[in-house]
Design a protein that fits this description.
Elements lengths: L2 H21 L6 E4 L2 E3 L6 E6 L2 E4 L3 E9 L9 E8 L2 E8 L7 H10 L3 E7 L5 E2 L16 E4 L1 E3 L2 E12 L11 E9 L2 E7 L6 E2 L16 E5 L4 E10 L10 E9 L5 E6 L16 E3 L2 E7 L2 E5 L15 H5 L3 H5 L3 H8 L3 H5 E5 L2 E3 L5 E3 L27 E3 L9 E8 L7 E9 L4 E5 L4 E5 L2 E3 L4 E19 L19 E6 L16 E17 L1
Parallel strand pairs: 1-31
Antiparallel strand pairs: 2-34, 3-30, 4-29, 5-28, 6-7, 7-8, 8-9, 8-10, 11-12, 12-13, 13-14, 14-15, 16-17, 17-18, 18-19, 20-21, 21-24, 22-23, 24-25, 26-27, 27-28, 29-34, 30-34, 32-33, 32-34
Length: 537
């Protein structure tokens, strides 16, 4: 061995020794492969040091995407399903006019205005149109965007107003069933699967409901989980507790799986470790397209601020005297007169408030649910802070930014003016890609250290944001927390900027392939910075 070889071997010896120790480590490590990992849960977080924390980020309100003001739409329009289909964006929703004041009037409305499923489309996810489909007649004309009407099909009374429509990416799906949906069956009670070759012409896949144990008075959904190779369903139910009344208890979510969309098993109630029992109306669960091993949901939290008692749906109307006892904050909310009108039918119609939460799961049953609102009612204005406000559509889509040269962003759509006029509206909100939650620290600094991981890839990329003076640095450690030679903190120059994807460089470059398959920890040191996601590539 010549002198150059001896020097080279001697310099590499600490690294080779560290690799050998890491390879022989008995520590159990999470195999993340080359997946993109987000901080929507703490599954990979071992330690947060200094002032580092996981911080929830809220979407930014944008323009009104749709005004549901057609004669066949109305004040009760909602439950939107949204997805991208090639170069087109599709949207399906409940079209309905409802009177919360008089039950008789609502029944009369249903005679001339039954629950419809309507359709809209877009070329960019921002500007939406309601095409005249010519499929169903309303008031003597087929010039509308209705794709399904409630009514009896065979022996089933189908409710077209609770649609959950998706494009089936199952490679085994038949061409005539490329689009699928779950619609509610009013009688017999349950969920009925439908199919379509084009997303416009629908037919039932079964002559009876395939899921029957639940409340179902919400947007009940199902989808193909490509990551795991089966269908999943999520629907509304009541956690009855010890009561025999199905409408007493906590509003909850139930799930099941299926190989064929017809036969369902593995029934389970969603669990939220370390989270209090909370009334949840919708669930809006779906794989996140940039990290499909993560199931992300946007459930609606139902809150009653004034009643302070059992959440029993049998409560009657509130008297004028009772409404005068509402708190100053309740009476200060928008549209008091209309709120009192709704309360005269049922007090909760006037006092209940709704907002959207964020939750995430890696197994489809146990979810980490953030207790802070993901989409709160927002600044007080007409059409907000009421029962039915901020129901987010199922699910999010990727759209172009209105900032020239900026990367794509996520768009979500939420309902406003529900029950408060003769039409409801749908507002678009945006969020940066992967931008639900960040590991964040102020300028004084903080650290996040992961649990032991195993990865595949040659480089590490980050989705991050810093101030001009802030920074992110990354250290790769062995499973016991010792810096690996060449990948210590001092080997990583400060990373600054604001990028959806930026490679990490150490003094010797970006190549981390020698560590692939070994049990390692990542140590992120943050100063006035947000770290949203990381991925080995």
């Amino acid at each position: 061995m010549n002198l150059r070889s001896i020097i080279s071997y001697t310099a590499a010896a600490p690294f080779l020794l560290a690799l050998a120790e890491a390879a022989n480590s008995p520590v159990t490590a999470v195999d993340i492969g080359s997946r993109r990992e987000l901080f929507v849960d703490n599954a990979l977080v071992d330690q947060l040091k200094g002032k580092a924390e996981l911080r929830l980020h809220r979407p930014v309100p944008r323009e009104i995407s749709l005004v549901h003001d057609a004669l066949w739409e109305g004040s009760g329009t909602g439950y939107h399903s949204v997805f991208q289909d090639g170069d087109k964006y599709r949207m399906y929703y409940k079209a309905y006019e409802i009177s919360p004041l008089h039950e008789a009037e609502s029944k009369k409305n249903q005679e001339v205005h039954p629950l419809f499923c309507a359709y809209a489309e877009s070329d960019d996810g921002i500007h939406w149109r309601k095409p005249e489909l010519g499929l169903y007649e309303f008031n003597g004309s087929k010039a509308n965007n209705i794709v399904m009407v409630s009514g009896v099909i065979g022996k089933v009374d189908v409710d077209a107003g609770h649609p959950a429509v998706f494009k089936d990416d199952n490679p085994g799906a038949a061409p005539e069933a490329r689009y699928k949906a779950m619609f509610r069956s009013r009688s017999p009670r349950g969920l009925l699967p439908f199919k379509s070759p084009d997303g416009l012409h629908w037919s039932p896949m079964s002559d009876a409901p395939v899921i029957t144990d639940g409340a179902f008075d919400s947007e009940n959904l199902a989808f193909w989980d490509a990551e795991r190779g089966f269908y999943r369903a999520y629907w509304r139910y009541f956690d009855r507790g010890t009561s025999a009344d199905p409408y007493i208890g906590v509003r909850g979510i139930r799930t099941a799986t299926s190989k064929d969309f017809l036969h369902w098993d593995n029934y389970a109630d969603l669990q939220y470790p370390d989270a209090p029992r909370t009334h949840l109306y919708t669930n809006q669960v779906k794989p996140y397209h940039r990290a499909p091993h993560l199931l992300i949901g946007f459930p609606v939290r139902y809150v009653e601020r004034e009643l302070n008692g059992a959440m029993d749906d049998s409560r009657g109307p509130a008297s004028a005297e009772k409404m005068k006892e509402w708190s100053a904050s309740m009476r200060a909310l928008p549209e008091l007169e209309h709120r009192e009108m709704r309360a005269s039918a049922s007090e909760r119609y006037g006092t209940a408030l709704t907002e959207t939460l964020l939750m995430a799961s890696r197994d489809g049953v146990s979810f980490q649910r953030w207790q802070e609102a993901f989409l709160p009612p927002g600044i007080e204005r007409v059409g907000t802070w009421n029962y039915g406000n901020q129901y987010v559509g199922w699910h999010l889509v990727e759209t172009k930014s209105d900032l020239e040269g900026a990367p794509n962003e996520l768009s979500l759509y939420a309902v406003e003016s529900y029950w408060t006029d003769h039409s409801s509206t749908l507002r678009r909100y945006t969020l940066r890609l992967d931008g639900f939650v960040s590991a964040q620290a102020p300028m004084s600094g903080g650290e996040l250290i992961t649990k032991p991981l195993r990865f595949r890839g040659q480089s590490l990329a980050l989705n991050f944001s810093t101030s001009a003076a802030g920074s992110v640095r990354v250290e790769i450690q062995d499973a016991n927390g010792r810096p690996l030679p060449g990948f210590a903190l001092e080997d990583c120059p400060a990373i600054f900027g604001d990028a959806i994807e930026r490679g990490v460089t150490w003094a010797k470059g970006r190549d981390v392939s020698a560590l692939a398959g070994l049990a390692v920890r990542l140590r992120f040191v943050l100063n006035d910075a947000d770290l949203f996601a990381f991925q080995f590539k």
